[in-house]
Amino acid sequence: MDQQYVYPAPPAPAPPAGIPSATDRRAGLRRPRRRIPKPQLDRVLDDKGLLVGLLLLPFLAAVAFVAQFLELLYYLCLLVYGIVMSPYWCVRALWRAFGPAATPEELGRRAEARKTVKTTAGCLAWIVGLVIVVLGAMVVIGLNMDK
Questions:
Q1: Measuring CA to CA, how many Å separate 68 from each of 55, 65, 75, 86?
Q2: Could you tell me if 45 and 51 are in contact, meaning their C-beta atoms sit under 8 angstroms apart?
Q3: Helix, coil or strand: residue 51
């Protein structure tokens, strides 16, 4: 029972007839290239889609210009809103955080405003710290340029 019967391997299939073998004299030759048809430039305007696309280019350029102008107006409005309203929101948050509160609703708003002020102060402290580190590194690099 310890002996196992080993079956002989099947014979290898013969290579297809159209492929040259390594010993064939044609083995190193390249396959012939496919011919690429030459463009027929006199038939370019026969295609109506291309002609319509070429005729629409000035219109599309005008639409793109108007879209860029509208985008510029949008961002300018956001900038003006931010500049005008930012002091209002800052003063409102500080008033709610540190102003008088009598009702439970106002006390809830005070807690929320204090949390907002604390988070904003923490973010500003990180930003100021990073600016100081970067400026300090720039000063050190600038002072060591002559050495």
A1: 21, 5, 11, 26
A2: yes
A3: helix
Tell me the per-residue pLDDT of 21-80, one tens digit each, with 9 for 90 and over: 556 555 556 666 778 888 776 666 666 777 777 888 999 999 999 999 999 999 999 999
Tokens of 79: 């900038």
pTM (predicted TM-score): 0.42
DSSP string covering 11-70, please?
PPPPPPTTSPPTTSTTTTPPPPPPPPPPP-GGGGGG-HHHHHHHHHHHHHHHHHHHHHHH
Q: How far, in Å, are 14, 39, 96, 115 from residue 123 at the CA level?
A: 75, 63, 20, 12
Residues 6+ positions from 112 with CB-CB distance below 8 Å = 96
Dihedral (CA of 108, 114, 118, 123) sign = positive
Task: Report d(CA 14, CA 99) in Å as an integer.
Answer: 95
Q: How far apart are CA 123 and CA 126, in angstroms?
A: 5
Angle at 83 between CA 67 and CA 80, to 5 degrees: 25
In the block, tokens 């102060």 appear at 121
